[in-house]
Amino acid sequence: MPERRIGIFSQLVPPKATWSAEKVPDQEGKTVIITGGNIGIGRETARVLLSKGAKVYIATRSGDKAQTVIDELQSSTGKKTIFFLELDLADLDSVKAAAEEFIRKEPELHTLYNNRGVTYAPADQPTSQGFDTIFGTNVLGHFYLTKLLLPVLKAAAKGSPAGTVRVVNMSSIAHYMSASEGIRWTTLGPGADAAAARKKLGVARLFGQSKLGNILFSNELARRYGDDGIVSISLFPGAVNADLSGYAGSFWKRFRGLLGTCICFILSGGDLEALTEDLRRDEGPIARQMRSGTEAVESTVQRGIRQNSGISDEHDSDDPREPSKEYHRAITSLYAGTDPEASGLNGKYLTAWARHTLPSKKALDSQLGKRLWDWCEEHVKKDTKVNADVKAKDSEDTKVEEDSKSKDSEDAKVEDVTKVVEVPILTKTEGDTKPKEDIKVEEVTKADEATKAKEDTEAKEDTKSKE
């Protein structure tokens, strides 16, 4: 059966789900990393996998927030195998440290959920290494993390059934909103020109091109490492479960549900909660306006989610044993990461709810995918090289400093020796009185002259006697 592209409207307003989290197979013996596992879809994914017996690492920046979630999920599931992994995707040094810490602790990684993403960031506030924060976090950070974790992914693949070791890459239907050429490379790097280019392109397209980048990366990862037993899948998790057959009530209720769907799509590319958190961290005027509008519609949107999906208000309680408002939006991620049928979806793209579809034509451009991979590798190496150069320079400076100290020490020794062997030759003082050193030198000179005269006289006498 040929692949087909599901329409935008069907992706935004999907039919009733035919797959559920209850179908997740047993996860005993499996180790999982979820970036952004303390919030939204990531948190719900962590809850389900933990309940199924997986060892789960929540990779996020805030240890306090992660610990709160860990405590809740341990209590609700009765499972203790959930841990915090410190990770800031906007800082490549933090990414490297996180990967190294994980590898020290675990010999294998069975599933990597590249889940966390930034939906909004000011154009003039780049990552720690100077990249566009949206692209640097969503694409470059996850690229680097995945590359560093390849050894433990490969190790898991060698000892696991075929197709069960997976990398799940969170994208969005917003990838259709990317730049006209797919990725506008001039917006990605550091510097004032790049910041100006980002402002010109706009937040929506910056986010869109990052989500396009997630698909391109996922496809290229599949092409390069599929033979090593790693299955790479990208997906749009869905905005709301808008099961039209489940609508009840008036036209306005149905309209509110659809409006909630559209707001989720436009503002957050599928994760309104993540967008709200991003906006709360920024105090700029645009962020304040967006934050005000987002918070105003958030409760309405979430009511729409519950009405459209059939989830009651009870599921929005503080009891973590119950499915959260992210319950349905985690379905596609869980399917991609665990279902046996998904083993044959290497390099494929899914949409809500757990349906295989074709992404945009740009997302299928293999040359663009290769260019993105090369760009990421170049800048990861460049950053690593810069750090290495700094360390080498520090080491060289230390060596130069030590050599300088050594030279100073040698000079001091030479100076001391000079002081010992030097014979001062002083000049006359007043009254033509000669210093003792001069007198000694003069006496030696006169003695030498007398000896030489005596030798000459003896030589002359010997000559005369011979004659």
What does it look like?
The chain has 467 residues and is of the alpha/beta class. It has 2 domains: 380 residues, NAD(P)-binding Rossmann-like Domain (Rossmann fold, 3-Layer(aba) Sandwich); 37 residues. Helices cover 54% and strands 8% of the residues. It has 13 helices and 8 strands. It has an 8-stranded mixed sheet, with helices on both faces. Helix 2 links the parallel strand 1 and strand 2. Helix 7 packs across helix 12. The protein starts with 7 loop residues before the first helix and ends with a helix. 43% of the residues are buried.
Give a summary of the structure in a few sentences:
By secondary structure, the protein is of the alpha/beta class. It has helices at residues 8-12, 40-51, 63-77, 92-105, 133-158, 192-201, 203-225, 251-268, 272-280, 285-309, 331-338, 366-421, 436-466, and strands at residues 31-35, 55-60, 82-86, 111-114, 165-170, 230-235, 348-351, 355-357.
List keywords for this structure.
alpha/beta, Rossmann fold, 2 domains, 8 strands
